[in-house]
Amino acid sequence: QVQLVESGGGLVQPGGSLRLSCVASGFTFSSYVMRWVRQAPGKGLEWISDINSGGDSTSYTESVKGRFTISRDNAKNTLYLQMNSLKSEDTAVYYCIRMSSSPIWGQGTQVTVSS
């Protein structure tokens, strides 16, 4: 069964850190570009970051540059998003996506940044 399962979300204070994980199964993880997106309450989807299949090329939306780091461990079939210096505006449900002609989405993990 092809699936992505995110974890690592939670409640954190402004300025804090979280690391999200996305474990892949049912397909050859190392062959695909992977993406993180998020959806804040009452807003549309926002692209955050991409990483190529080998993990040596990344891109970020401007609002998270210098604060978030995308990475992957192809041996563990896992995608990561390290989030530092979190702000209230980072509050959202975060999704990982396998980028392909038939994109696969995880179920999402809630991140809440609040004091």
Portion in helices: under 10%
Distance between the termini: 39 Å
Main sheet summary: 7 strands, mixed
Helix and strand composition category: mainly beta
Q: In DSSP terms, counting alpha (H) and pi (I) runs of 4 or more, how many helices?
A: 0
Instruction: Give the averaged pLDDT, no decimals.
Output: 97
The quaternary state of the protein chains shown equals single chain
Describe the structure.
By secondary structure, this protein is mainly beta. 0% of the residues lie in helices and 52% in strands. It has strands at 3-7, 10-12, 18-25, 33-39, 45-51, 58-60, 68-73, 78-83, 92-99, 104-105, 109-113. The mean pLDDT is 97.
Keywords:
single chain, 115 residues, mainly beta, seven-stranded mixed β-sheet
Draw up the topology in text:
Layout: E1 3-7, E2 10-12, E3 18-25, E4 33-39, E5 45-51, E6 58-60, E7 68-73, E8 78-83, E9 92-99, E10 104-105, E11 109-113
Parallel strand pairs: 2-11
Antiparallel strand pairs: 1-3, 3-8, 4-5, 4-9, 5-6, 7-8, 9-10, 9-11
TL;DR?
With 115 residues, the protein is mainly beta. Helices cover 0% and strands 52% of the residues.
